[in-house]
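Q: Hi! First time asking for a complex rather than a single chain. Here are the components, and I think there are four in total. Is that enough to go on?
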Amino acid sequence: MAYRQQLLPMEKVFRDPVHDYIYIQHQVILDLINTSEFQRLRRIKQLGTTSLTFHGAEHSRFGHCLGVYEITRRICDNFERNYPTQAPGDGGWDDHERLVALCAALLHDIGHGPYSHTFEHIFHTDHEALTVQILTSPETEVNQVLQQVSPDFPAQVAAVIQKTYPNPQVVQMISSQIDADRMDYLLRDSYFTGTNYGNFDLTRILRVMKPYQGGITFAMEGMHAVEDYIVSRFQMYMQVYFHPVSRSMEVILDRLLERANDLYQSHAVDAEATPVMLLPFFNNDFTLHDYLRLDDGVLNTYFSHWRDSRDQILADLATRFLDRRPLKSARVDETTQPLIPALQKLIEQAGFDAHYYTDTNDSYDLPYDAYDPKMKKPRTQIELQQKDGSLLELSTVSDLVRAITGKVSGDQRFFFPKEMLSENAESDLFKPIYQEFQQYILNDRLVVPH
Amino acid sequence: MAYRQQLLPMEKVFRDPVHDYIYIQHQVILDLINTSEFQRLRRIKQLGTTSLTFHGAEHSRFGHCLGVYEITRRICDNFERNYPTQAPGDGGWDDHERLVALCAALLHDIGHGPYSHTFEHIFHTDHEALTVQILTSPETEVNQVLQQVSPDFPAQVAAVIQKTYPNPQVVQMISSQIDADRMDYLLRDSYFTGTNYGNFDLTRILRVMKPYQGGITFAMEGMHAVEDYIVSRFQMYMQVYFHPVSRSMEVILDRLLERANDLYQSHAVDAEATPVMLLPFFNNDFTLHDYLRLDDGVLNTYFSHWRDSRDQILADLATRFLDRRPLKSARVDETTQPLIPALQKLIEQAGFDAHYYTDTNDSYDLPYDAYDPKMKKPRTQIELQQKDGSLLELSTVSDLVRAITGKVSGDQRFFFPKEMLSENAESDLFKPIYQEFQQYILNDRLVVPH
Amino acid sequence: MAYRQQLLPMEKVFRDPVHDYIYIQHQVILDLINTSEFQRLRRIKQLGTTSLTFHGAEHSRFGHCLGVYEITRRICDNFERNYPTQAPGDGGWDDHERLVALCAALLHDIGHGPYSHTFEHIFHTDHEALTVQILTSPETEVNQVLQQVSPDFPAQVAAVIQKTYPNPQVVQMISSQIDADRMDYLLRDSYFTGTNYGNFDLTRILRVMKPYQGGITFAMEGMHAVEDYIVSRFQMYMQVYFHPVSRSMEVILDRLLERANDLYQSHAVDAEATPVMLLPFFNNDFTLHDYLRLDDGVLNTYFSHWRDSRDQILADLATRFLDRRPLKSARVDETTQPLIPALQKLIEQAGFDAHYYTDTNDSYDLPYDAYDPKMKKPRTQIELQQKDGSLLELSTVSDLVRAITGKVSGDQRFFFPKEMLSENAESDLFKPIYQEFQQYILNDRLVVPH
Amino acid sequence: MAYRQQLLPMEKVFRDPVHDYIYIQHQVILDLINTSEFQRLRRIKQLGTTSLTFHGAEHSRFGHCLGVYEITRRICDNFERNYPTQAPGDGGWDDHERLVALCAALLHDIGHGPYSHTFEHIFHTDHEALTVQILTSPETEVNQVLQQVSPDFPAQVAAVIQKTYPNPQVVQMISSQIDADRMDYLLRDSYFTGTNYGNFDLTRILRVMKPYQGGITFAMEGMHAVEDYIVSRFQMYMQVYFHPVSRSMEVILDRLLERANDLYQSHAVDAEATPVMLLPFFNNDFTLHDYLRLDDGVLNTYFSHWRDSRDQILADLATRFLDRRPLKSARVDETTQPLIPALQKLIEQAGFDAHYYTDTNDSYDLPYDAYDPKMKKPRTQIELQQKDGSLLELSTVSDLVRAITGKVSGDQRFFFPKEMLSENAESDLFKPIYQEFQQYILNDRLVVPH
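A: Yes, that's all I need. Here is the structure of the assembled complex.
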C-alpha cells in the first residue's frame, strides 16, 4: 500500500494528561515522532522562564506538538463525518487533506530552539525559517519521512505552516485566531501551571466548528463557547504569560547571552569555558546541524561553566539565572519613561552596570482582532454562522470580545536589581541611594518623587 | 526575633498543580528554597527515563520537594491543633519539632543527582550520604541557612533524614510506609503522567493521622482510606514505575555511561568530547562541588557530543538514548533464565555486542510489610487505633493489604535490541537468526522453542 | 460553657464534591443543620427547572447552604489570622462576629420553597420575608436553636440577611457582588451541570480578600482573579441560568399553577385531586407551618394527580411538565414585539389557548455594577486596594468588567407550542397555519414575513 | 427509511458531568428518552438513602441510564471499528446488534421505583419483572416506540436484560462483572458523592475490551486497568454503599412503610392521610399504571402527612426519616448475635417498641467471582486474552483480585435508637438503662459486658 495511506495495524496511543489519550493511526505520523528532530523537542521547555514562576510548568514542546496533532485529528474526524465535500468548491471537507494537516500540526514548532524568544533576539535566528528548513532540507530525518509520501509533500507541509497553502481550511486549522495550536497550549499551560484561567470547553468548540469556502466557521449556537475561549486566552496572557517575574528572568537571560557574546567578540572569554556548541552562533555562521544540537540543557551547561568565569558580570548573571534571583520591576508609561535615566544613574551609583542590569520591556498582545486590510498582518477574523448560512463576525455579537478587540493588552515595565529595594540596610554604604530610588516607586509604578 | 521563629510578614505561596497552593510561613524555609543547591533540583527530573514513556512526566524534583514540605506542614497543623502534648512522654505533639520536620521534608532529596539510580550504579555515588553532606558541610548555602537556626540544627535535620532522630513522630512523618514523601510523589506522578492510579484521599488520611508515643497512627475509621493509599501505591509501581519501556531506556543509559567509563579508563575517548564535568567521577575522585554541578542537562549535553564519537558503540547508544529508541524485552523466570545465553549468542550473531545491548533487569518492590525484626531493614508497620486506644496492624484488618503484604511484586525481564523482532526483513542477511530468536518468545515471555 | 462558644469535641465534616470537606466546629451550627426546617432543603432543588436541561443539576439547596457556610468560615479564618482588629473602628476583623456570620451564611436561603420564582409569582409568597419569619418565629426549631445563643440572636442573624446589620463586613460576606453565596453557587452549579463556565480561583480570591472600615476589599494583585469571577458569573448566566429550554419549562409550570388556581377559584377542580397542602395558598391564607410542608415532591405529586384531570388544559400542562415537553421560543425585541398578537392568533387557530400556551419572558441580569446612588437598590461596588491603601473601583481597571458593567444582559423570548414548527405534517389539517407561522421566524428571531 | 436505521439529521448531545457529552444518533433512542416512563426516572434517586450520608449524591436514575447507554455506544463503536465479524461464528462483532444493545442499556433500570430495595421488601414488587412488563406491555410509551422497530423488538430488548438473548456479547455488555451498568454507576456515584474511590480508567478499559465467541474478553496488557476497576468497585461498596448511616436510614424507612401497612391492614390509618397512590400496594393489587405513578416525591409526600398521624410510632418514624435522625449501630458476628435479645429488652425498657426501632442488617457483596457451576447464579468470569489468543481468568493473574475473589465482604450490624448512647442524661429516668446498654458496645462492636 502507498505509504500515504498506510495505517497502523493497531492504533497506537500516547497517554496525555490534557487529552487523556493521543491516537496515532498513520505510519507516517509515528515515523515523524520517532525522528531525531522531533525527539529533541523533549529537551526544550514549552514556556521557557515561566517555569521559574509556575514551577509545575516544566513541560516540553514535545507534548504540545502531540496535542496540536490530536486536536487537528479530531477536527478532521468531525469534518469528514459531518461535512464531507460533495463537489469541488462547495465548501465541504476533502479528507485527502487530512495527512498534510496532521503533519503540519505535528511539526509546526519543529524549528524552535532553547529559550527561543531570547536566543533569536541575541543571535538573529528565526524559528519559522528554521521550521521550513527542517521540513525541506534532505539532511533531516523529518524530511526523509515526508519525502516518502511524495517528493512535493515536504513543501506542502511547509506551505501550510507558512499560510501559503491553497486550502484555507487546512491553514486555519493550524493557524488562525482559534486554531489547534492555541487551543492546545491554553489547555496544556493551564494544566501544568496549575491555574485554571486557560480552561475552555474544547469538546463544544470542536462540535460547532464547520468548514466553508472561506476556511472555518462556527455555528452561531456556539458563540458563548468561542467567547469563553477568547476570554480564557486573554486571561492566560494577563496572569501567566506576562508575569513580571518570568519576564525579569528573561531579561537576565538576554543580558547573560549578550555579555557572553560581547566577551567572545572582544576575545575575553575564558578558555576553559569555551561553549563549543555556541561558537557557530557567536560567529554568526551556523548550519542546521549546529542548530539542532542545541537545547535547554546545553545552554544551562554553559551557564554553569560561566558561573566560574573571571568576568564578574558574566559570572553574576549566570548565577542569578541558574539560582533564580529575579530582578524587580515597576510599571512605566509614556509620562514616567523620562524618569528612567535618573533611575539608571542611581543604579550605577549603587555599583551595577546599568546596561546589563536594567531593561524596559513591554509585553503586549492583541487578544483578538477583526479583519483589517490596512494592517501589516491582517488577522483572519472569527466568523459565526447563522441557521440561514449567513456569517457574523464574533465581536459584533459578543460584548466581552468587543471590549478587548483590537486593543493591545499588557504593560511596560522597568526592570532593576532587587538590591535597590533594600530596606533594613542599616550599615550599608548605599543606603541613601536606595532611599532616593525608592521614592520613584509607588503602587507598583514609577512616579515623580515628591 | 530569633531566626528560628521568624515568620514572613505576609505568608508566601507557590502555585502548585497538586496541592493548589504551597504556603511558606518561615523565613528559614524561604531562604532554603532560594539556595543554589535547592534551585538545582529544577534541573533534575523526578522520574528520569519515565518521561520517555509518559511524556507528561517531565516534572523535576523541585516541585516534589515543595510538595513534601506542604504535606508535612499540614500534618503539623493538624497535630498542633488536635493533639498537642500536655506532658512529656504523653504521646502528644510538641510543636517545637515543627521546624526540624519542615526542613527535613523540604531537603530530604537534596542529594539527588541526574538519573540517580543509574548514575550511582556506574559511579558508586550515594545520594543519601550526599544529602547528609550537603546539610552538614559548611561550604553549602543550605548549611549556612541551617546554621543560622543553631549550630547543631544541620545535624538534627540530617538525623531526621537518617532516621536516627529521637522523636519517632518526626521521623515517620518524613519516612515510613505512609509518609509525606510517598504521599506527595504518588499524587504528583499521577498528575503529571496523566494516569489516575496514584490518586487517594489525602485530606482524609491527614484527618485520621494521630501522634502517639511510638510515632504515628491512624484512627480506625480511616482504615479504608489507608488501604486505598497502599493499593494506589502498588498500582503506580505496576503500571508506571515498572514500565518496561522506561526500564529499557535505563538499560541503555546504564550501558552508555559504562561504555564511556570503559573508554576513558582505556584512554580511548575522543579529545573533542572530553566530558569536563564528569572527569572527577571517571577518576573516582570528586568533591561536593563537582557533584552539585551535575544535572540532567549536563549529562545530555555530553551524550550529544558522544553521538559524534568515533566509537561506534558509544555513538550508537547515545543516539538510542537521545532519540528514544528503546530495547524490547520479555519476561524471564527461574525456569527460563538458562535460555538467556543462547539468546545472547543469537544477538551477537546479528552483529550486536551482547554486553552493551542486553540486560536482565528485575523491578521488585515490597508494597507493604508488617514489622519483621528478622529483616535487614525492618519497616515501621502501619498501626490503626481503635476507640479504646488499642492498636491493630493494617494487614490484620484489610484483605486487600494482606494480599500484597510482604510479597515482592514486579517482574524480571530480558532486554534486547528491537531489531531481533524484525518480521518483514525479506532481504535481510540476518533473517534466519531473527526467526530463530523469535521462537523463544511467546505471550511476552521467554519460552523453550518447540 | 456558654452555648455560643461551645465547640464540638471533635470537628465534624461533611464530604462535599465542591469543597472536598465542610468543617463544622460549633455545636450551634450542627444543631441548626439538624433542624426540620434545614433538612427540608434537601427536598428543594437548587436550580428548579434547569435540571430539565442539564440533567446533572439535580442538587438541592441543602448542599449549597453548607457551601456558603464553608466559604464564610474560610473568610473568617483568613480575617482572624491576618487582619484582627486592634482598636474599635480600625477596620480590622472582630472575631466575635464569626458566629452571626456563620449562622446567616447557613440560613440565608432557609425561606426558599419549591420552584420559588414561579411559586411566588402565582401565590404572592416572598422567600425573603419567610426567611426572616423562620429565624424569628418561636415555633421553628431554627429559632429555638438561635434563641439559646441569646434572646436577640435570631434578630441579629435576620439583620445580616436583610442587610441592616451594623457591621458592613459581615453583611458583605453574605451578600454583595462577590459574596460567599454567589461564589458557592457558581462553583456548585458548574460542577453539577458539568459545564466549566462557572469555575474561578476561589482560593486566590479568599487570599486577597481583606476587611476595611467600609466592608470588604480585595488586594490589587488579585484584580485578575476578581475579574475572572465576574466573567464566569456572566457566562453562567448566559449559558446555564438563561437557557431557553429551562425558561420554557418554567413557563409551563407557571401556566400549570395558574390554571389550577383559576379552576379552584371557579370551583372547577376535580374532587379526587384536591391538593390538600396547596389549599391554604389557593385561599391566600397560609401559615408558616403550611409553607414548610411544601417541597418539590409535594408539588410534583399534585401534578401527577392533575394529569388525570377532566380539565384538558390542566391535564395537558401537567403532562408536559412531568414528561418534559418544552415549548419552543424565538428572540423578540422592541421592533418585533408588535408581531406577537398575530402569532398568538395563529396559535389559537391551531387549537391552543394562547393564554396558557404562550409567554413573553425576559431573562435579564446586571452582571456587575458600580455604585450608583440614583438607583433604586444601589449595589456595593467591588473595591481593589493598592499598596498604599487607596481604593480603586473594579471597572476602572478591568476592560472586561467595564464591558459588562451596568449593562443588562440576556434576552427576551416568545414561547409557543412546538407543534407550530411541524414540518412534515402532510396530512395535518393545520399545515397552512404552521407554514404561515414559520415565516415569522428566522435565525432564532421573530421577523416580519416577506 | 426504516425506523430502525433512522439517524438524527444532526447528532444530539446531552451535557453530562461524568462523560462530558452523551451522543444520541438514533431517532429510536431519542424517542425512548422522551417517553413518560423514562422521564419518570428523573424523580427517583439513584442511591436512595445514601444522599442522607453523602449530600452531593442526589442524582437520579435518569442520568445513570443515559450513562450506561453512552458507554455501550462507545463499546459498539470500538467493536465495529476494530473487530467486525467476517463470517458467522468467528467471534467478531455484528453491528446489526447495536440497536438492541443500546436500547437494553438505556432501559435496563426502567422498572425501578422509589427506594426500590425497601419498597420491594415491604410490598413484594420486583423491579426486574416490572422492567420486562414496561418493555412488553402495549400500554406503555416505551413499548410503542420499540414496537415501531419491529413487533418482536420489545421482546428482544427484554431478553438482553433477562440474559436470555442468544448473543453473549450483547448480554455481557449490559450485564456481567464488568459491564456498562457497573462502570457507569461507579464513576457517577463517585462524582456525585465527591469521593474518588470509584474512579478507574474507563478509556483504557474500553480500549482493551474485545468480542469473542464466548462474549467479551480483555487484552492481557489491560490487566491492571481491569484489576483497578475491581478494586475500585470493592472500595465503593466498603466506603459508600455499605455506609452504616445510610443503612440505618433504610431501616427507618423499612419500619415506617411496614408500620403504615400494619395500620392499614388493621384499619387504623387516619382518614386525612389516606395515601391514595399507595392503596393498590397496601391491597396487594396494583396495575402497571399504579406503579408508574410512584416516585420519591410521592412517598415523601405521604411521609409528610404521616408526621401528623395520631399513631405515635408512625408519626415518629416519619419525622425521623424526613428530618434525618439516623439510628446508631454496632457490628455483630456469630458470637455476639445471642446478645441481641438482651439489648432489645433494654431498648423496650427505655420506652421503644423494639420491633419498629431495631434491626439486624447485613450488607454483603461478592466483589468478584470466578465461574463456579455449583453456584445458584454462576457469574461470568473475567477473561484476559493473551497475544496467542488463549484466555486466562483474572484472579489467576492478579494478587489483589484473588484476595477478594469469592469472599463476601461487608458487615452485619445491629441498629438501635441513638438515645441509648446518651451520656450526660443526668436527670434522665432511663440513665441506668442507658449505662447498662453501653457496656455491651466497645470499638464499634457488640461485646459481652464484663
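A: Chain B has 22 helices and eleven strands. Let me know if you'd like any chain examined more closely.
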